[in-house]
Amino acid sequence: MNAPTSIKEFFESGYRQFLPHVSIDCAIFGFHDNQLKVLLLKMKNVEGWCLPGGFIQWAEPANEAAQRILQERTGISQVFLQQYYTFGEPERNKEPNLKDLIDSLNIEPAEDNWLFRRTISIGYYALVEFSKVTPTVDLLSDECCWWDMHELPKLLFDHDLMIGQALQTLRMQLNFHPVGYNLLPEKFTMPELQKLYETILDRPLDRRNFQKKMLSLRILERMDERKSVGPHKSPYYYRFDKNKYDQALQAGILLGF
């Protein structure tokens, strides 16, 4: 079945393709200019922003739906994506903002329209390399762009809670799974890797301790090339050993940040 091509069609018959009552919202994190950023959408004719999201097709597994939504909004696939929470408050999507959108589009859905009913959202977070992303709007939005986590705009529905929960989960995961492969370029210095961890945790880390912990994981390869950053400052470049990195993701680690 073809996807709806207009908002009117989506409101009137989207339930034929998508499972009602269950949606997916993705907190997509990127790292750029030493800032942790999250990808947000600006809904048409509505004052506020939201996370990229969508519904699950009737015969589609939830994880595949999340990957599809991620690829539609970023243009990339096969990235780290993890389910982190289920948001199920009864009134979570009962906002006047949705009515404002409907009024501005001159459509008149029935009061029992499938989009007005209680919806439970499955939250996923993704880690992507900033430079590879092409932010792309969806049917209900007219802007899609990155926002610094310290300068977020007004968020719709319960998406402030979603972002907070995603960041809390990511911070906890730093203790048990490596991060960086999907957030950093192919080669990077140890200070750059440390800055990534400090940005996510929002606090400084001891340089020697951090380097010792990361090297103990045996997931890094030191390259012969150095980065010239000034007199007497030429740190080595590193890169991840993809096989060992994937093994660490599967088996888990214990860092204790």
TrEMBL record:
InterPro entries to which the protein is assigned, alphabetical: NUDIX_hydrolase-like_dom_sf, NUDIX_hydrolase_dom, WH-like_DNA-bd_sf, WH_DNA-bd_sf, WHD_NrtR
All residue ranges annotated as the Nudix hydrolase domain in the record: 19-169
Segments forming a coiled coil: none
PANTHER family: ADP-RIBOSE PYROPHOSPHATASE, SLR1690 PROTEIN
Protein name in UniProt: NUDIX domain-containing protein
Species the sequence originates in: Rhodocytophaga aerolata
